[in-house]
User: Fold this.
Amino acid sequence: MNTKKKYIKTTIILIAALLLLSFGITSCSSEEEEFDLVQQSRFALGTYNQVTVYATEELANEVIDGIFDRVAEIENAMSLNVADSEINQLNEARGEAFVTVSEDTFKLLKRGKEVAEETDGAFNIGIGQLIALWDISGDDPQVPPEEEIDTLFGHFDLNQLELREDTLEARINDPMMTIDLGGIAKGYAVDEAIKVAKDYGIEHAIIDFGGDVYVLGGNPNGNEWRIGITNPIIGEGGVVARIFSSDMSIVSSGDYERYFIENDRRYHHILDPETGFPADNELNSVTIVSDTALDGDIYSTAIFVMGLDKGLAFIESLDSIEGALITKDNDVYVSSGLSERFEMMNESFHWVNE
Ligand code: ADP
Ligand code: MG
Assistant:
């Protein structure tokens, strides 16, 4: 998909995007400027990745190719679906050998270890075996027998992931543990995509990799972007609220994104490492606003696992992130630093701590 339109048509395109994407992006176009809007969507990292660049068409296409080359590099290193990826090599060598990895992978392994401590285990890249057991993104997901889940407890300890920074080597010491970067790689890829765009001198762009969004610059019409938070109620569609943003990342995690149903119960893709089951608390959506999509990807998942009270307190304890939490009762909680850029858009939901 490759579209080229004069900038004046942005509004229409972006409103169309609102219907198609997990994030709705609208713009309020008033002045005409000499930009082309070039937009492409390609499948990678298990999802649709949309890139919107404002530049001449020639430059924009070059930028977009550069971005997807970079994404392919990240995917080839980190994906479990790429047979000889670094993460598959690391997992296969568990209990045995050190594996040399790229700087990208090393960075995320290191961050993964840190963030497991910081979130009290809510976000844990060492639950690969548990994720594989549930296979929620696979062809035939089903609730695993509890005995099988039980055998995995005690094998999510990231102290068993040994890293050697000087040589970029990693080893999993526990033969029962595997690494899954599924909750972290996409956010990293968004940040790297932005770096590519900036290297080409791009000033306005939107990266949306399966709902992990970064908006570079403001809307070329001089306003800020307005990024919608998807309505988490399955079947309703539309947005709950919108966030005025420029040069920032907006990432959501929720129980509505990927799931399967068994015996009338819905099982989603964010697992609580403590119970071995999908996180089950008051929340159905967490949106994180931050300087990097890596932070957004990590903390939206972590806070979804923590639940409302602990999650809100956690956001307030960090200067680097803001957020909005939506409960199954349609209550919306917005962190203190986000309220001025937050606007409700849906009367079925209530901003309770305004
Ligand atoms: P999405 O892919 O919809 O953005 P998330 O960013 O919330 O979803 O990440 C979910 C993915 O992260 C899962 O598919 C799984 O691979 C991994 N994951 C699930 N639970 C956890 C967890 N508690 N800690 C770390 N990674 C997780
Ligand atoms: Mg995510």
Summary: The pocket of magnesium ion (ligand 2) is lined by residues 186, 212, 251, 253, 297, 300-301 (CB under 6 Å). The chain has a mean pLDDT of 91. The two ends are 41 Å apart (CA to CA).
